[in-house]
Amino acid sequence: MDTSEGVPAIETTGLTKAYGGTEVLSDLDLRVERGEVVGFLGPNGAGKTTTIKLLLGLIKPTRGRAAVFGLDCGAQAVEVHRRVGYVAGEANLWPALTGAETLHLLGRVQGSVDEAYRDLLVARFELDLDKKVRAYSKGNRQKVILIAALMGRPDLLIFDEPTSGLDPLMERAFRLCVSEARERAQTIFLSSHLMSEVEALCDRVGVLRKGKLIEMGSLAAMRHLSSLSVEATMQGELPELASVPGVSGVEEDGQVVRCQVQGSIEPLMKVLSAGGVTRLVSREPSLEELFLAHYGEADHHAGEGRPGVD
Amino acid sequence: MPVRADLVSTDLAERSIGPSTTSRSPRTVVASLTTRKAIRSGLLWGLVFGVSIASSAISYTSIYKTQAQRDALAAAYGSNHATSMLFGPAPDLGGVAGFTVFKISMTLMILGAVWGLLFSTRMLRGEEDSGRWEHLVVGQTTKQGATGQALVGMSVGAAVLWGITAVITVAVGLDDTVAFSIGASLFFALAMVASAAMFLAVGAVTSQLGATRRQAASYAGVFLGLSYVIRMIADAGIGVHWLVWASPLGWIEELGALTAPNPLALIPIVLFTGSLVIGAVRLAGARDLDASVIADHPRRRPRLGLLWGPVGLGVRMARATVMGWWAAISVMALLYGFVARSAAASISSSSVGDVFKKLGAEGNGAKAVLGACFLVFAVLLAFVATSQLTALRAEEAEGRLEQLVVRPLSRSSWLGGRIAVALVVLVVGGLLAGIFTWFGSASQGAGVSLPSLLGAGVNVLPPAVVVLGIGVLTYGLRPGLTSVVAYAVLGWSLLIVIVGGIGAVSPWILDTSVFHQMASAPATAPRWGANAIMVALGGALALLGVVAFRARDLSGE
User: Fold this and answer.
1) Does the predicted interface ipTM exceed a cut of 0.90?
2) What are phi and psi of A249, to 5 degrees?
3) Under 8 Å between Cβ of B208 and B283
4) CA pair distance A24, B437, nearest whole angstrom
5) Looking at the predicted structure, is the pLDDT value of residue B119 above 80?
6) Looking at residue B244, what DSSP letter applies?
7) Contact check, Cβ <8 Å, A292/B129
8) What is the CATH number of domain A10-222?
9) CA–CA separation, B117 vs B324, rounded Å?
10) What are B418-441's pLDDT values in tens digits?
11) Min Cα separation B296/chain A (Å)
C-alpha cells in the first residue's frame, strides 16, 4: 500500500548546494504535485541539473531538504529510486553492450519492467537493439536511456534535456510518451532548453536564475508577466507612442511601428486608430520571449563559465 | 520586457570569435597536450628507473665487498640457463656493471614496455574512445596529423624518461666503487628506455588495429608476451640463441649495455620503432574515425548471461582483462616451476646459498628459488588490484555509474560488489600461481608439495588486499586520486623491495612497503598472523572507503 498518498511528488525546502563557498543553488522551495507535468527552465549554470542531482541523491545538499513522495532524497535514495525514472542529458553507457543488453541490465537493476510497453517504445523510437552502444549515434544512445526510464512506468519521471540528439520525428515520439505518462497520472519533471517542448508539454513552469527560483507558475500566469507585442502599419505620419500609458520599446521602420504594451491595450488602440492604422498584428509572448525577458543578455551569460554547474 | 535575441547572439559570436589569448598554436595542440602528460609520466618513471639502477649498483658494492663473494655470485648465476631464461643472461657477475644488468635490466625493460603500451593506447585509442579525439581532429589538423603530433608528444615523454634515468645513472656511476663511465651510463639508460620507445610505437599501431583501448592494449600486451617468450627460448641454452634477434626485448639484450656495448643492435630498434610510427600514422589516416583496422562487428545477438545486476556487469566488463592476467600468471608460474629445480642445484653450496639469501630468498633448494619468484606474483597481484581500482573509478568518471545508482541500487551495494569481484580476481590469481608452479615444479621433480605452493599463492594476497583497501579509501574520499595513490603505493612498495632486498634501508622505511611483512613462502612458512592483520587492515580501509563513498557527491572527470 502506498503510504505516501497526499504528499507531493517533489518537495524541497531551503535546498541549497554550494561548491567551495559558491552557492550554485540557493534556498530552493519547490513543490510538484502528483500527476503534474512541470517544466524547469534556466540558462547554463542556473542550477537545473544540480537540482535534479539533489533530487536523485547523487549529490548531497549543503543545507535544506529534498523529498520525493515524502521520502528523503539522501537517506532514502534507494526507496526514492524505486519510484523514479531518470533521463540524463548525456547518455553514458557501456560501449561493449548492445542496446538489448543495456535495456536488460537496466531493467534488472530497476526491478520492474512493463515488457509490452518496452517493446512498444523500441518500435516507436525505431531502435535497433542488436547494435552495440559503441556503434550508436548520440541520438540512439539517448533513445536507450529514454526507453530504460519509461519502460518501468515509474510514478515520477525526471528528464534533464531528454531530447538532445533526437531528430524532430523522435521528439514527437517523446512527446507522445509524455502524454501517455500524463494520462497514467505519472508525474513529470522536465528540465529543458527547448521552450517549445516545455510549452507543449508542461502545466507549470519554474524559472531558475543564478541558483534561485525566480518564477513558478502556470504558463497563463507567466504570460501576464510580460507585455504584448504590437506591430502597426500606419497610413500617414507615425504617431507619438512613447508617451502612451503602458507602451514601451517603440521602434519605427518606415510606415511600420513596433512596441510592447503592458496592462490595458485600449490607450494604444485609441492613438493608432486616430493615426490611421491600416494593419495591426499583436501576439502574446512565446515562452522563449518570457524566458529572455527574465534574463536579459547579461544574465544569460552570467551562468556560463561556472564549471560543473547547470 | 522582451530582449532582442539578435543582441544576445551577436554578443556570443563576438565572444567566440574574439582574439585568442592562448599561446598554443592550433596546429600543434595535440602535440602540446600529449607532451604535457608525457613529461609528467616520464619524470615519474624516470625516477623509478634511475633509483632502481642506482640501488642495484650501490648495493652490490656494499654487500659483495670481497672477490670471494663476487665469485660465489658468478658461480651461482653466471651459467645458469634457468635464471637466464627469466632475467636474461648474467654477463659478468664479478663486477658491478654485470650485476646491475642482471639484477635490474629485464625488470626495467618490461616495466618500460608496459608503460609505453599503456600510455600510447591511452593517448590514442583512449582519447578516441572518449570522444575527445573527434574534437581535436576537426581542428587545424588531420587524423594522421593528430596521430603524428601525439607520437611527437610521447617521444618527448620517452626522452624525459631517458634523461632522468641517465642523470641518475651517471651520478651513481661517478662513485668510485661503481665507476661507470659517462658514456656507458648514457648508453645503459638508453638501453633501458628502448623498450618504452618501441612499445610506445607498438601501442600506436595497435590503437589503429583495435576498436577499443582495451583491445589495443591487449594486442600490444600479447606482442610483449610473445617477445618475452621468444627471448626466453633464445636464452634457454638449447642452441637457438639466434632467436634473440626475433624479439624486441632480445635486441635490447644484444645492446650489451655496461658490459659489452654493441651499438649496432640499435639498428633493428630504430628501424622497428620508425616503421611502426610511420605505419601508425598512415593507418590513422586511412581508416575512418572511431573505426578500426581489425573489423569490430557493430551488431550481434544479445548475451544476457551475466547481466543480472551490477556485480555480473562488473564481471562481464573485467573478464577479458582478468583472463589475460590469469593466463599470464599461470604461464609465469609454470615457467618458474620448470626452472626452480635447476636453479636450486646452482645454489647447493653453502656460500652460494648465502649469496642467494642476500638476493631476497629464504630457505634452501627449489623452495628458496620459488620464494623469490612468488614475490613477483605478489607485485603482479597488487598491480591487478590497482587496475581494478582504475576501472572502478572510470565507471563513475565516465558517467556510467550514474545509470545504475539512479535506480534502486545503493552505492554501498555497487561498491561492495565491485570489491568482491576484485577479491575473487586476486584469490583466483594467487591460487593459479600456486597450482601452475606446482605443475611446473612437479614435472621436474622439484619436490615442493601442492599444499605448500597453494599456501604460497594465498600468502601473496594480503599486500594486494592492502593496496585495494588504500585505493578504495582514496576512491571514497578523493575519487580523482584513486589511480595515482594506488600506483604510488605500489610503486613505492616495489622500490622499497628492490632497495631493501639488498639491505641498508631503515626498518621504518621497509615497513612502509606492503610487501615487507609478507613471508617468503614457500621458502618459509607463511606468517598467517601478519597476513590476517594485513587483510584486516585492507578490509577496514575498504570499509571506510565505502562509508566515505556513500557520503560524498558523485563526480565526473
Assistant:
1) no
2) 60, 45
3) yes
4) 58
5) yes
6) G
7) no
8) 3.40.50.300
9) 15
10) 999 999 999 999 999 999 999 999
11) 10
Structure letter (DSSP) for residue B348: -
d(CA A132, CA B229): 35
Which residues in chain B have their CB less than 8 angstroms from residue A108's CB?
Answer: 307-309
Q: Would you say A137 and A128 are in contact if contact means Cβ atoms under 8 Å apart?
A: no
| Contact status, residue B157 vs residue B38, Cβ threshold 8 Å | yes
C-alpha span between B474 and B179 (Å, rounded): 43
Using CB atoms, pick whichever of B7, B12, B309 lies closest to residue A108: B309
- A94 vs B299, B400, B554: nearest CB: B400
Helices (H), B210-309: 213-234, 248-255, 266-286
Give me the amino acid identity at A112: S
Lowest mean pLDDT among A142-146, A174-178, A202-206, B357-361: B357-361
- Backbone φ/ψ region at B297: left (φ over 0), alpha (ψ -120 to 50), beta: beta
- Contact, B520 vs B371, CB < 8 A? yes
Residue with cell 499583436: A282
Please, are residues A138 and A165 in contact by the beta-carbon 8 Å criterion? yes
* Closest to B296 (Cα-Cα) out of B219, B362, B193: B219
Output phi, psi for A223, to 5 deg. Answer: -65, -30
CA distance linking residue A214 with residue A231, whole number of Å: 30
Q: Under DSSP, is residue A199 helix (H, G, I), strand (E, B) or coil? A: helix
More confident residue, B420 or B331: B420
Please check whether residue B18 touches A, CB under 8 A: no
Cβ-Cβ contacts under 8 Å for A258 (sequence gap 6 or more):
A229, A230, A231, A232, A249, A250, A251, A252
For residue A309, the distance in angstroms to the closest alpha carbon of chain B comes to 12
Q: Is A130 on the interface with B (CB under 8 A)?
A: yes
CA separation for the pair A29, B34 (Å, rounded): 46
Q: How far is B437 from chain A (nearest CA, A)?
A: 35
Alpha-carbon distance A254 to nearest alpha carbon in chain B (angstroms): 20
Name the one residue in this structure whose C-alpha cell is 588504500.
B470
What is the average per-residue pLDDT within A87-114?
94
**Cell numbers that stand for B132 in this block:** 575527445
Task: In whole angstroms, give the CA distance from residue A131 to residue A136.
Answer: 7
8-state DSSP, A165: T
pLDDT confidence of residue B60: 80
Long-range contacts of B75-82 (CB under 8 A, 24+ apart): B75/B346, B75/B349, B75/B352, B76/B346, B76/B347, B76/B352, B76/B355, B76/B356, B77/B102, B77/B346, B80/B342, B80/B343, B80/B346, B81/B235, B81/B236, B81/B237, B81/B342, B82/B338, B82/B339, B82/B340, B82/B342, B82/B343, B82/B346
Q: Which amino acid is at A212?
A: K
Percentage helix, strand, coil, to 5, in chain B?
75, 0, 25
**What does the domain layout of chain A look like in residue ranges?**
10-222, 227-284
Strands A84-87 and A156-160, how do they pair?
parallel
pTM: 0.80
Interface probe, candidates B401, B406, B411, B413, chain A, greatest A C-beta count within 10 A: B406
Q: For residue A267, give the C-alpha cell.
A: 490607450
Cβ atoms of A19 and A309 within 8 Å: the answer is: yes
Burial, B445: exposed, middle or buried (Cβ in 10 Å; 0-12, 13-18, 19+)? exposed
Confidence band (pLDDT; 50, 70, 90) for B44?
confident
Q: How many residues in total does chain A contain?
A: 310
Q: Residue B359 phi/psi, 5° resolution?
A: -80, 0
pLDDT value for B12: 34
Contact A109 B402 (CB under 8 A): no
Residues of chain B with Cβ-Cβ distance to A100 below 8 Å are 302, 304
